[in-house]
Design a protein that fits this description.
292 residues; alpha/beta; Oxidized Rhodanese, domain 1; 5-stranded parallel beta sheet
Length: 292
């Protein structure tokens, strides 16, 4: 399995796997800042057998200024949620949404962070499944409870994917590349619709998550992604860290980097945590998307 297929699965390949002897569990993670509760959209139509995942309640601990808008859940809480979703020990998992994977990547990242290795994103999400002409089902799939054991929750492994904190993010640009996955106008400090202050972490580079995707909502090809990240200084083994507003869309950037073989560290507190701390410096303006 190459780097890309370890992270992403096409609609056609997923349909084939679902009909095979080892079908993956499916998780529907529809969420956005404008419409955080995706349950209504899920009930209106989802991949057959997919369970619904509530990003705010199941993929995050309660928010606070000290921890940010989407703090990491306790590993034991994540394991309890994963069992509610029907995840079984040793079984593969595929996550999706209807926004190019920008919210589903949070589930991909958390499950990988907690030690599962066979977790992938449906490339193109629900629109790609529909475009292929495959069926949806309505209502609630209500999968049977699972028995999955997350290594991080069981104490049998450390983090499967690395994290850093505010101090680490502050120091990161001196030795590596710190990418800001938010919209460029938020990076530049021209507008801030959610968090306490506008701007970005000093030394960070603007790398909007949306630029990981082609016009059809699928991830760009490997050559395009490599060129995009190389233009941002991701080359020669330089350590890479990513943040966004609250650690959701930054997970998508980590996935895009992983798809081309680059390991990246996530700053889970992200801008929501950084900007709430008056002791943290804020930069504005700066290089636009893709600037080296």
């Amino acid at each position: 399995m190459d780097h890309r297929t370890a992270v992403l699965v096409t609609a056609a390949a997923l349909r084939h796997e679902l009909a095979g002897p080892r079908p993956p569990a499916l998780l529907d993670v529809r969420w956005s800042l404008a419409e955080p509760d995706g349950r209504g959209a899920y009930h209106a139509g989802h991949l057959p057998g997919a369970g619904f995942v509530d990003l705010d309640r199941e993929l995050a601990a309660p928010p606070s200024p000290a921890a940010g808008r989407h703090p990491l859940p306790a590993p034991a809480d994540l394991q309890a949620a994963a069992r509610r979703w029907g995840l079984r020990d040793g079984a593969p998992v595929v996550v999706y949404d209807d926004a190019g994977g920008t919210s589903a990547a949070r589930a991909w990242w958390l499950l990988r962070w907690a030690g599962l290795t066979d977790v992938r994103l449906l490339d193109g999400g629900l629109p790609a499944w529909r475009a292929a002409g495959f069926d949806l089902e309505t209502g609630d799939a209500a999968p049977a409870p699972g028995d999955v054991v997350l290594p991080l929750a069981a104490g049998t492994a450390a983090e499967g994917l690395p994290t850093t904190d505010g101090d680490g993010a502050a120091a990161w640009p001196s030795a590596g590349v710190l990418l800001d996955a938010r919209a460029p106008e938020r990076f530049r400090g021209e507008r801030e619709p959610v968090d306490p202050r506008a701007g970005h972490i000093p030394g960070a580079l603007s790398a909007p998550t949306t630029q990981n995707l082609a016009d059809d909502g699928r991830f760009r090809g490997d050559a395009e992604l490599r060129r995009r990240f190389a233009d941002l200084g991701v080359r020669g083994g330089a350590p890479v860290a990513v943040y966004c507003g609250s650690g959701v869309t930054a997970a998508h950037e980590v996935a895009a980097l992983a798809a081309v073989g680059v390991a990246a560290t996530l700053y889970p507190g992200s801008w929501s945590q950084w900007s709430a701390d008056p002791a943290r410096p804020v930069a504005t303006g700066g290089p636009g998307p893709g600037a080296p």
